[in-house]
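Just curious: can you write a single protein's sequence together with how it folds?
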Amino acid sequence: MSIIKEESLNTIKGGATTITGTIINAIVDILELIRDAGYAVGSGIRRISEDELCPLK
């Protein structure tokens, strides 16, 4: 094992990409939001087509 000088420690870089847990959680939250919105739109379309809307009285 070689000894690294202190000046060259600043130039060490590791990894090609950095994906953190925060980024993964944000992506999962966005996907859940899109899924829930699709479910709501699909449910609305089904209720309109089957004429099962709640009265607004």
In short: The CA atoms of residues 33 and 39 lie 10 Å apart. The helical segments are 6-9, 21-49.
